[in-house]
Design goal:
Length: 381
């Protein structure tokens, strides 16, 4: 009987409660969208940030010696130490690694000038450093490479140029597919396919440096670094802390912004529900006085209005979650270019929050109901 009375009351007051339900739907939808995005945006934003370069470097564990040691600042392990290229396949199975690119550095002679040349896997490099600015095109043939913009100027090279590389008594010829500009040390270097540089230097199957791009989450970078060290005991793992900290700071600010916006909208929704319930109490004060005069207890009358307020929260939470999930999917597709993975906590959290907000904002109007005296109310005072 109690629920039937509540349902009949809600149907009669439908238009007046519409504003409160709409406000709760708006607040719940935004909360649901931001909740789903906050769980999934970290990974997607991290992937976007990983497009700007590697944040973990792998070096041979052996110390560099002799004339090659001068290249250590570049992460170069040339004649004295190396990482077996065949062992790098185990990195593909490490959770959190977006991509990796092996390098083999050496000092070669081009047109009578000594220059740093790197053998790299261009297909993997595109996944780790897609931001490289190429004037020309990426190499497609076995004997094609890239030349840094500064090196191209000093050597007189351009896209389409033919070059001879000399290393000791060994020589190799290649074509320049494009000129690369990064604003870093790469501008003064040459880049050719890894097998070409391996053959030229007589270091088949070896690499001197591996750049690894790891998806950064709290604590995940250290965990991935530990897993790499376990799988490749012959390497030294170095994390680029400045990149890791930047990732965490940016993602933290994104979550903070999402939380602040959601909180402000929910406050507005709570004020709307509270004011609507206050108006309902004032509008129906004669009905309240009559119910009390007919024997209804104060708790019974208060429960009647409290359930009405909670019904607003339930309806707003359910509808708002569906709308918020759709909004989050659109944001994920247009901002991150990927489908959103809904959080399992999304619906229960949204429903619980909407119900809690509606119940809390209904308490003050309910206190007004409890304070009403039927004799005074029915006299119109």
């Amino acid at each position: 009987m109690f629920l039937r009375v509540v349902w009949a009351s809600l149907r009669r007051q439908g238009f007046r409660l519409g504003a409160a339900v709409a406000a709760m739907v708006l607040g719940s939808s935004l909360f649901a969208a931001l909740l789903n995005l906050s769980f999934d945006a970290g990974g997607k934003a991290g992937r976007e940030l990983r497009a700007y370069g590697a944040n973990v470097l792998l070096f041979p564990r052996e110390e560099l010696r002799g004339p090659s040691a001068g290249l250590e600042a570049l992460g170069v392990a040339v004649e004295d130490a190396g990482i077996p290229e065949s062992s790098l396949g185990s990195l593909d199975g490490v959770d959190g690694i977006v991509g990796f690119a092996p390098y083999l550095y050496s000092v070669v002679e081009v047109a009578g000038q000594a220059v740093v040349a790197a053998g790299i896997d261009f297909d993997r490099l595109k996944g780790v450093s897609p931001w490289w600015k190429i004037d020309g095109r990426w190499p497609e043939e076995r004997a094609e490479g890239l030349v840094g913009v500064s090196a191209a100027q000093s050597l007189g090279l351009a896209s389409g140029s033919h070059v001879w590389l000399r290393y000791g008594e060994s020589t190799s010829e290649a074509d320049v597919a494009g000129i690369v500009e990064t604003g870093g040390p790469e501008d003064g270097q040459l880049f050719f396919p890894l097998p070409l540089i391996q053959r030229l230097t007589g270091r088949q199957g070896q690499v001197g440096l591996v750049q690894v791009s790891v998806l950064s989450r709290t604590g995940s970078l250290q965990a991935v670094a530990g897993e790499i060290a376990r799988r490749l005991p012959g390497v030294r793992v170095r994390m680029l802390d400045q990149f890791a900290q930047a990732d965490e700071i940016i993602l933290g600010k994104i979550r903070l912004l999402l939380g602040l916006v959601a909180g402000l909208v929910l406050i507005v929704a709570a004020l709307t529900v509270g004011s609507t319930m206050f108006a309902e109490v004032l509008y129906r004060k004669d009905e309240i006085g009559l119910m009390k005069a007919l024997g209804a207890t104060r708790k019974r009358v208060a429960a009647f209005f409290l359930v009405e307020g909670m019904s607003i929260g339930i309806l707003g939470g359910v509808v708002g979650y569906g709308a918020g999930l759709g909004a989050a999917a659109l944001i994920g597709q247009h901002v991150f270019g990927a489908a959103l993975v809904p959080s399992s906590l999304g619906f229960p959290a949204t429903a619980a929050l909407a119900l809690g907000v509606a119940a809390a904002t209904s308490l003050l109007p309910v206190r007004r109901v409890l304070a009403m005296e039927p004799s005074v109310t029915l006299r119109g005072e």
